[in-house]
């Protein structure tokens, strides 16, 4: 569930790329479980991509096109991970948390 509206941000976009939300009190319902499953896949893919990124960035023979593809894949994975964090209430949808959010 999101932190401020009681709605859960779903890990897919709606018409026109707009965010989709789920309003339910049943975390075990079909849509909640489907969203959980997709989020799990997204997090797993981000983890695998991160493992591949370090060696690719250390490879002095990597060409610009390969690195641009890696950057695009990392950006997509980061977008997905931020969506999961927002959905689970660990991140403000408007942007990054402030020091005050951490009691600093």
Question: How would you describe the overall organization of this protein?
Answer:
This protein has 104 residues and is mainly alpha-helical. It has one domain. The protein contains two helices and two strands; from the N terminus they run E-E-H-H. It has a two-stranded antiparallel ribbon. Helix 1 runs antiparallel to helix 2 (64-87). The mean pLDDT is 83.
Question: Which descriptors apply to this entry?
Answer:
104 residues; mainly alpha; two-stranded antiparallel sheet; 2 helices; 2 strands; elongated
Question: Could you tell me the strand content as a percent range?
Answer: 5-15%
Secondary-structure class:
mainly alpha
The overall average pLDDT, rounded, is 83
Shape: elongated
Count of DSSP strands: 2
Low-confidence stretches: none
Question: How is the topology of this model organized?
Answer:
Layout: E1 8-13, E2 19-22, H1 30-58, H2 64-87
Antiparallel strand pairs: 1-2
Helix pairs in contact: 1-2
Summarize the structure.
This protein has 104 residues and is mainly alpha-helical. Helices cover 51% and strands 10% of the residues. The chain starts with 7 loop residues before the first strand and ends in a 17-residue tail after the last helix.
């Amino acid at each position: 569930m999101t932190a401020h509206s009681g709605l859960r941000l779903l890990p897919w976009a709606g018409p026109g790329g707009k965010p989709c939300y789920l309003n339910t009190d049943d975390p075990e319902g079909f849509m909640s479980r489907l969203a959980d499953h997709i989020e799990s896949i997204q997090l797993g893919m981000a983890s695998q991509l991160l493992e591949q990124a370090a060696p690719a960035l250390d490879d002095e023979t990597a060409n610009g096109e390969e690195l641009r593809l890696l950057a695009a894949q990392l950006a997509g994975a980061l977008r997905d991970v931020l969506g999961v964090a927002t959905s689970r209430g660990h991140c403000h949808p408007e942007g990054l948390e402030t020091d005050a959010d951490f009691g600093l």
